[in-house]
Amino acid sequence: MTAPILFRYFVIAGLINTALFTFLLLTHKRNSTATLLLMALMLLVSFQALLNGFDTRAFFMANPHLSRVSWLQLSLFGPLIYLMVKKLTVPPQRLQWNDAIHAAPFLAYCIILWPWLSQPAAEKRRLLSDFEALSRHDFGWLNQVSLLMLFFYLLLSLRQFRQYRSALENTFSEISRRRQQWLQQFLYAILAVLVISGLGFYGRKWDIPFISWFYHYNYVIVVGMVYWLAYKCLTQPDIFMPGSDGAMVRYRKSGLAATAAPSMYGQLLLHMETAKPYLDPDLTIYTLAEALNMQRHHLSQLINERSGSSFYDFINGYRVEAVKSRLKDPASGHLTILGIAFECGFNSKATFNTTFRKFTGLTPSAYRKADG
Predict the structure, then answer these.
(1) Do 359 and 270 fall into the same domain?
(2) Are residues 223 and 279 in the same domain?
(3) pLDDT by residue (tens digit) across 297-342?
(4) Quick check: pTM over 0.85?
(5) Where are the transmembrane segments (predicted)?
(6) 208-232 b/e with 16+ CB inside 10 Å = b?
(7) Given phi > 0 = left and psi -120 to 50 = alpha, else beta, which region is 207?
(8) Statement to judge: residues 187 and 265 lie in one domain
């Protein structure tokens, strides 16, 4: 079996699996705008890979109306990436009217490509009969503009990410940190794909040996990235749910009665002491609110107004106290500091060290020595 045939099987499998995965996600009730944008991006990328894998005269003669659809789709990738990053990092998370400006590239491409797209199938087949000559247009000015536009939107996304990262400097949320790590990996993976795609595009345009192979087979990396995105959505869904970290929690006109607040806060403190939910490293304000049978925004308001701290500072305060208690306990002498931290609800060494120093003014090792 030749490499092109294997590649085609691979992209077909990628599209089928992406469609199934998207269907599964759509059955969930709590899909955020960012998740929906990600699903749209994954479907488009998988379909783009399919069109690339079947970039042959026979395929487009049989399906003439699919020719140059890949050109049109390129106008959507950049805006989808940017809007997804924006909705993951900046409230409000719903699409706003001013986001409609990012549909402008797609509308412009529709106008530019309309003379081709509107032609009947017979006329397209006549032109596609000289497939090699027509394929040279794939490397014309429009697709070069597409590459530049993708780089432009990637730069916008990286700028948005850096602003988000700066905003997290004083936020000690495990989900925030995981989201930050995922966004960084995602954006730099996109950058690597764009560089390889650019090399393949110009390698094919100028007939540069070896580099021209990148033009088609970089989609192996792209489809692999789609599988990675699907894996992240399934195993870490919270990172795609804005509002699940302390930096994003907001409440307006919550309707929480002032007379009920003291007893509700007392209920929260009792639950923290008895059930110790902070020992769960994946604890979120949603799961805590559910355990207390409270609305999430009411719980957020209680913590902010009564404790004067964010949700994750509130939770991490309990975790730090638990670590301090364990460090003083001779029964924990055989454990490392990090082992104790993990047992007390932390799941990241960096977050633990930063949080512990914030609450105590000492590093964990310095605290153990001072106590010991």
Answers:
(1) yes
(2) no
(3) 888 888 887 887 788 889 999 999 999 999 888 888 888 999 999 9
(4) no
(5) 6-27, 34-54, 66-85, 97-117, 141-161, 182-202, 214-231
(6) eeebbebbbbbbbbbbebbbebbeb
(7) left
(8) no
